[in-house]
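Work Package 3 (structural annotation) set out to generate three-dimensional models for the target panel prioritized at the project kickoff. During this period the team completed the workflow that converts sequence records into discrete structure tokens, so that structures can be stored uniformly alongside our sequence database. As a representative example, we reproduce one entry of 745 residues exactly as it appears in the project archive.
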Amino acid sequence: MATFLYKLGRLAFRRRHFVALIWVALLTLAGVGAASAPPAGNSSFSIPGTEAQKAFDLLEQRFPGASADGATARVVFKAPSGEKMTDAGNKATVQKTVDELTDGSEVASVADPYTGNAVSKDGTIAYASVKYDVSGMELEESTKDALEDAAQQARDAGLTVEVGGDALQAVPETGATEVIGIAVAAVVLVITFGSLVAAGLPLLTALIGVGIGVSSITALASALELGSTTSILAMMIGLAVGIDYALFIVSRYRAELAEGREREEAAGRAVGTAGSAVVFAGLTVVIALVGLAVVNIPMLTKMGVAAAGTVAIAVLIALTMIPALLGYAGRRVKPAGAKGRLLGRSRKSEPEREEAGGQPKANLGTRWASFVVRRPLAVLLLGVIGLGAAAVPAASLELGLPDDGSQPTSTTQRRAYDLLSEGFGPGFNGPLMVVVDAKGSDAPKDAFDDVAGEIKGLDGVVAVTPPAPNKGGDTATITVIPDSKPSSVQTEDLVHAIRDAGGDVEAKTGAETLVTGSTAMNIDVSEKLNDALVPYLVLVVGLAFLLLIVVFRSILVPLKAALGFLLSVMAALGAVVAVFQWGWLSGLMGVEETGPVMSMMPIFMVGVVFGLAMDYEVFLVTRMREAFVHGEKPNQAVVTGFKHGARVVTAAAVIMMAVFAGFIGSSESMVKMIGFGLAIAVFFDAFVVRMAIVPAVLALLGKKAWWLPKWLDRALPNVDVEGEGLRTAGERGSDPDEDRELVRA
């Protein structure tokens, strides 16, 4: 591995014009594809294997032309104080609005409030339901404008009017904080390298990689039905790992220069050593993201594969374009320890100081590691107890999917949600649709009535509409209004109660009862994600564990890495619960409405955080193993690893946190929550687990940390991540290929 990457790095350095041309051409091609691609169509949200999805598919089959997946809107009217919606003037205004809405070319139907029993008991609130032929993402802007114009005209007439539903669904915005995150990354890079040129290389390559990845996603969005969130998450992860991977290679290049090597040789060795760590770190992230496919939720699978593709591009760019750009930069990228004019006068590097008779000054990483190896048990206990305390709120984790009730109060969707709750009760925002399939029943009508009667007798039911059969008379729909809000535990219990009651009816009549609708779909998604979490965790951690055994040639080091990850991800979930469910610091984070944590948050965090956690494990511990295999004692190897890697890992973690935190400003609650969760997870994992718990455990284990059974050592391939083959070849003055077989790490 190291030898191949060494040659690749030198080739890219020498043929930098060719390499740069290839990546610029790919960026141009992806950009042209994105610009000429049709707009993204319907991002279908299907959940195979769930009852809600089965009922949805049955509706499309038995009620053809009903546009089951079409967009909906609820135009909610509230009368001025002291008036009622049944007053003649207000009634005329509503009727005019309904007539205007009916004229739309994409409108399937509009329900008049006065003929559809859609006026509240006190007469102050009414609503008109609008059904469209196409989904919310496919609606033309003119249709959305017509909806907003109709609502505005009613407002001008004196009514309070708000619009809910998915007809006004918009592409989420990330806000200015995303740019702030990149700016913070730039500042950290300048401080780390002391040079604008060296700092600019990781930023430039990361932006090129993200540009290619996101443009490719945009170009394929229509054909593959990729949602807008897919590109945002790919951008988030691609930026973070792209900057970090390039940072590690540039840092190693500067270290090689400080040892007196020529620039082409330094570039080759940087890619051969740090590049090997980049490859394996990238593989763990890709495994974690692609592994999301085991959940069997197509939307989540597409998100994972798209983000994994962006990570793969980041790895390839780091291995090829970084050495090419280093060739262009020449002497403007200085050896480690030599600061440019930006941060002061140049100072001698460590080898130069030693040659001059001076003592090298211990850096902060060295001093911290020395402290940890002297007090490993105390540091270990403090770190574990601290993360355990942060994880306590995770015991109260409640899962759900966001609806209009989780929107900011400044949006018309949220205000419409609140008006409907005020006029008709909280459950009106999450009606349940019960589908009765009586095709196998001898008396379909009796079966429909039996189901409706059973549901009316259940606790937590406010209203049940009469069964509405299809033309064939073998299937009917029943709408059930709960007395609790859609995201509550009571509504979830009611869905299960209806399904249980349907089982009793099926035993008597042969008619199958299914519950669907957005609320039931959300409940089924949450349960499916919960059921998939443990298998997913076993698959991802198991594969990465095997990969790390190959990298570190150890059993205990990968085991320690996996256990440390579990600590950090549980602490991060605890922080997410505290902020988004309990409301701690919600104002600071821009969380206007607390509630259940997004259903896919735990499994998504497990996947992404595990991949990112292994990044720091690989980058930091490979330096320790490199020192150990070169003859240092275990504790001294830990200190050496921190001496060379702590500063860079710290910079990488701060950069990744800044990039993720930049997405907290998104208008999309899912993106906001993921941005916060990943940022806090990186903080816990990098600064508590990798910087404190890892060296403490390695100090306690000593030589046992690097133990590997002899039979397994012989069976495993020698990937030579530490670049031992390169060092041996360099010492002998021979070709690395000739010595590779002589080296066993």
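The first strand starts at residue 72 and ends at 78.
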